[in-house]
Automatic annotation (TrEMBL):
Fe2OG dioxygenase domain mapped to chain residues: 111-209
Organism expressing this protein natively: Klenkia brasiliensis
Protein name: DNA-N1-methyladenine dioxygenase
Gene3D superfamilies listed in its UniProt record: Alpha-ketoglutarate-dependent dioxygenase AlkB-like (2.60.120.590)
Gene Ontology molecular function: dioxygenase activity
GO biological process: DNA alkylation repair
Domain of life: Bacteria
SUPFAM superfamilies referenced in this protein's UniProt entry, alphabetically: Clavaminate synthase-like (SSF51197)
């Protein structure tokens, strides 16, 4: 695997230890068409530099390849997957999952189980338009929560089949949650950028059977 990117500590996130700020009353819900919604809370995690340092370490990042027509190409990001039994690499991530469980229990009716991580090394890394429709996500409403660490990147959403896109900028310590029919009726992507951006790690919490 290629060398991991180096993180320049930010000048504005000076908390000594990572701290999760309050969720209720601060998350803003955006209702999209067809029963989809997105909750957004910039700066949910304070002291995120500590978490990013750990995530940019040797936590088992994997460089994947996939078939594209007649060629095999590198997936433009590094990946790490934690099943429900595996300990997460920073305790604040376990606390984040517990807090999300408590907050979304009524709406979701089941706990978050797996944790997927993507490392975008620079602006050339990306994820193409898709919905999390492997497994139950293809037929059932669900909730996917993403906590972002590192350089801000855009998360775009657009209706399946096309239409205007909506942009969320995901910065250091920000939380975005896609819910309702979002994975079935909307697609999302993180496009490449020509801006000089540093690394970003996306931490995604999903219920069992959603990918
Ligand atoms: O980078 C992100 O926050 C989105 C990741 C994503 O959509 C995925 O891995 O399915």
């Amino acid at each position: 695997m290629s060398a991991l990117p180096v993180h320049q500590p930010s000048m504005w996130d000076l908390a000594d230890e990572p701290v999760l700020t309050r969720l209720p009353g601060r998350l803003v819900r955006h209702h999209l068409a067809a029963g989809a919604w997105v909750d957004h809370l910039p700066g949910w995690v304070e002291g995120s530099d500590h978490v990013l340092d750990v995530l940019l370490g040797d936590i088992g990042w994997r460089a994947d390849r996939r078939q594209m027509y007649d060629r095999e190409v590198a997936v433009p990001r590094l990946l790490r997957w934690y099943d429900e039994a595996e300990e997460l690499p920073h305790p604040v991530l376990t606390e984040a999952r517990d807090r999300l469980d408590a907050h979304y229990a009524g709406e979701l009716g089941e706990p978050f189980a797996t944790t997927g991580m993507c490392l975008y090394r620079d602006g050339r890394d990306s994820v193409a338009w898709h919905g999390d429709r492997i497994g139950r996500g293809s037929s059932q409403d669900t909730v996917v929560a993403i906590v972002s660490f590192g350089s801000p990147r855009s998360l775009l959403l657009r209706p399946v089949g096309g239409g205007d896109s909506i942009r969320f900028t995901l910065g250091h310590g920000d939380l975005v949650v896609m819910g309702g029919s979002c994975q079935r009726t909307w697609d999302h992507c993180v496009p490449k950028t020509n801006r000089a951006v540093g690394p970003r790690v996306s931490v995604q919490f999903r219920p069992r059977g959603i990918a």
